[in-house]
Amino acid sequence: MQTVNIHEAKTHLSRLIERAAKGEPFIIAKSGKPMVKVIAVDTPSAAEARRVGFMAGQFSVPADFDRMGNDEIEKLFGGDK
Q: Mean pLDDT in runs of 10 for the chain (81 residues)?
């Protein structure tokens, strides 16, 4: 694993981050003493990721859903004109 000093890390940060993102972690040192390890962030596993349609088949929407409550809505918002 590559070790770089702080000055070199600041100078080449973009390049170092690209390499870390591709699976090549590195260590940043200060005066030769290792301070931090930079590694790529893992993407969430399939079990952790939210899925569209995860509740499919668990409930049903009535066919008249978009017309439900029309009479009450008309009374509340000017159906008396």
A: 94 94 93 94 69 84 89 82 54
Residue range 2-38 in CATH 3.40.1620.10: yes
Q: Is the pTM of this model over 0.70?
A: no
Category of 58 on φ-ψ map: left (φ > 0), alpha (ψ -120 to 50) or beta: alpha
CA neighbor of 4 nearest in space, from 20, 16, 18, 14: 16
- Pinpoint the alpha helices (H) of 1-81: 6-11, 13-21, 70-76
